[in-house]
Amino acid sequence: MERAGAGHHLSGESGSIRSWLPSRGDPSVTMVVSVTALMSLKSRLALSRLALIVEPEDATGDRLAPFIQAGVDLVVLESSDDGDADAQRVVALRQVMAQLPILLATANGDAAEAASADVVHLERPGWWIFGSRPRGHQWSLLGRNARDRRTVRNPGDEFDYLFVGPVADGVESRLVAEAVEHQPPLTTDAVPWFALVEDDFPVVESLIDVGVRRIALGSGLMRDPDGAAWLAGLRQRLDQVWRDEPGGLDFSRSAARL
User: Are 219 and 163 within 8 A, CB to CB?
Assistant: First the structure.
């Protein structure tokens, strides 16, 4: 299913791509697509609305094409525990998606440097000497899961974004409430965060209603034959919420200059 006014298109088995400007009237989306070459990785992250976790076997252009076309901004490749293989997956996908404003992350820290990854996602960061976290290059972004309120409040200066959750109880989630209060979405001083929904996808609407503005979805969505179409509808909903948010347009303009 093609998202109305979609801004990206991946074509066919050859993996070739063409990009074109969105026709819808969302200024922040237009900015992302039209000036991608001038935007920093931090800007792309700040303007992101949807993240998708992808299993190694699904990390191909053909498998991802309908989900990227539906509106995914950040793709997180799960670790296979094989650093070399995961690095190769990042490199191959980056070549396929080179003309698209999509952030591509690896969840395998051992693959980051070899892949020169733009984003490294650590599900369980553990203990590291300060400054020694895995990086793809000097400008790469670093994200982590946040499973407790202390991490939501103070994720650490090294981290550029959070996946909060997984959320299993919707609007009753204390973790989500903590994030909305202490890291207010669409504010320049907050750490960008995504509510992580691993499989209870219908809960997403309730999360948006309580203030969530970025969603990360589990890999199971790619197993659903209607997953891409559902995702396209969710993207439209988030675009509308961002447009209607007080100060949303000012945030988008500021984020584009990070």
Answer: no
Residue 149: what pLDDT? Answer: 92
Q: Residue 129: helix, strand or coil by DSSP?
A: coil
Query: How far is residue 169's CA from residue 17's CA, in Å, rounded to a whole number?
Result: 39
Q: What is the DSSP string of 65-91?
A: HHHHHHT--EEEEPP-S-HHHHHHHHH
Distance CA 43, CA 5 (A): 22
- Measured between alpha carbons, how far is 136 from 96 in angstroms, rounded to an integer? 19
β-pair partners for 9: 18
In the chain, the amino acid numbered 113 is E
**Cα–Cα distances in Å, from 131 out to 45, 102, 128, 142, 167?**
21, 26, 8, 11, 30
Q: What average pLDDT does this structure show over 131-156?
A: 91
Specify the length of the chain in residues: 258
And the tokens for 67? 């989900």
* Alpha helix (H) residue ranges in the chain: 27-34, 41-46, 61-70, 83-96, 109-115, 149-153, 174-182, 204-209, 227-244, 248-255
Cα–Cα distance, 188 to 118 (Å, whole number): 21
119-to-106, 137, 217 alpha-carbon distances in Å:
7, 9, 17
Dihedral, CA of residue 187, residue 192, residue 195 and residue 196, to nearest 10: 180
pLDDT tens column, 32-88: 444 444 789 999 999 999 999 999 999 999 999 999 999 999 999 999 999 999 999
Alpha carbon distance 104, 113 (integer Å):
14
**3 state DSSP class of 144:** strand
How far is Cα 62 from Cα 60, in angstroms, rounded to an integer? 5
- 193: its two tokens: 């965060």
